[in-house]
Amino acid sequence: MDPLVIERYPGSWIGLEEHTEERGARGRLIRHKQDGSGPISEFEVRYSLSEARVAQLPDRIQRPGTSGLHLAIMDRSHHWDAIYTKREAEEVSWYEAIPTASIQRVREAVERGARSVIDIGGGASRLVDHLVETDLDRITVLDISRRALDIARKRVGTVGEAVEWVVGDITRLDDLGTFDVWHDRAVFHFLTDSSDRRRYVTLCERTVEPGGMAVMATFAPDGPEMCSGLPVHRYDAQELSERCGSAFELVDDEHYVHVTPAGVEQSFVYFSFRRVTSSACLSVSPSGAGSGS
């Protein structure tokens, strides 16, 4: 029997044979169950890859009367590598020839004295092309897709030799060092599991120096509900501030419309948070924190 991956989508558990960007998954329907719970055919699956509980999935699920069905666990890196294999970097929906909003917010932080930047989920983004032309002591680009990072590394060439290229899942890393600026365009909204969000925020707290900035962009409340075949969580300023916790003070938020290579408009919000010390945690009302929601 061919290896399967067991993944939960709303209302279904599916045995996946292949990921596709358009549909998110293609494979055999093991059993449709509206609440997604309990025994599924002869299987009992306790956790879902779509909730990033990869480490807690059993290696083998016993089928009555057999020696067991081995699961080839396909993590998120496979999904994103597959997209960059099937499409050119300039064809994916999140492509920006010039990432203007990101450049502006990072530049503002640099003008206030920032000397180091980490780009979370930077992948093949062209932000790094501009960072290498900025007077910075340290630049790191992190992405779950090795293929996406290879595209960016080859594009920037020798000027990118000083860049640290890190392949990793942001929800599975414990330490990245410290940085003055944490930049994330469209990673956080893919974290639909609460434990993943907590790990992300904890790592961000550990990484961003007090006084440093966390620049984040997510789909706005009127933005897409899915992206690249995966569900997302959309945010306004109030909810994201609550998710980030008291270690981060919302400085401003701004609505931004991204136009995909196919000409589709996508509604985003850009947020800038300042890292504060525990004794100086402040609460800022989102309604007075810029032009966002």
Number of strands: 16
Specify the structural class: alpha/beta
* Total domains: 2
- Integer average pLDDT: 76
Quick one: biggest sheet? 7 strands, mixed
| SSE string | EEEEEEEHHEHEHEEHEEEHEE
Radius of gyration: 20 Å
Low-confidence stretches: 1-74, 279-293
CATH A-level architecture of the largest domain: 3-Layer(aba) Sandwich
| Shape annotation | globular
Briefly characterize the structure.
21% of the residues lie in helices and 30% in strands. With 293 residues, the chain is of the alpha/beta class. The model is unreliable at 1-74 and 279-293 (pLDDT under 50).
Question: Your description of this structure?
Answer:
The chain has six helices and 16 strands. It is of the alpha/beta class and 293 residues long. The protein has two domains: 5-74, no CATH class; 100-288, 3-Layer(aba) Sandwich (Rossmann fold). A hairpin with a 2-residue loop joins strand 13 (226-227) and strand 14. The radius of gyration is 20 Å and the shape is globular.
What is the fold's blueprint, element by element?
Elements (H helix, E strand, L loop, with lengths): L4 E5 L2 E7 L7 E7 L6 E2 L2 E2 L15 E2 L7 E2 L5 H11 L13 H12 L4 E5 L6 H5 L6 E6 L2 H11 L7 E4 L11 E7 L8 H14 E12 L6 E2 L2 E2 L5 H8 L3 E12 L5 E11 L18
Parallel strand pairs: 8-9, 8-11, 9-10, 11-12
Antiparallel strand pairs: 1-2, 2-3, 4-5, 6-7, 12-16, 13-14, 15-16
Relevant terms:
Rossmann fold, disordered C terminus, 293 residues, globular, 21% helix, 7-stranded mixed β-sheet, disordered N terminus, 2 domains, single chain, 3-stranded antiparallel β-sheet, alpha/beta
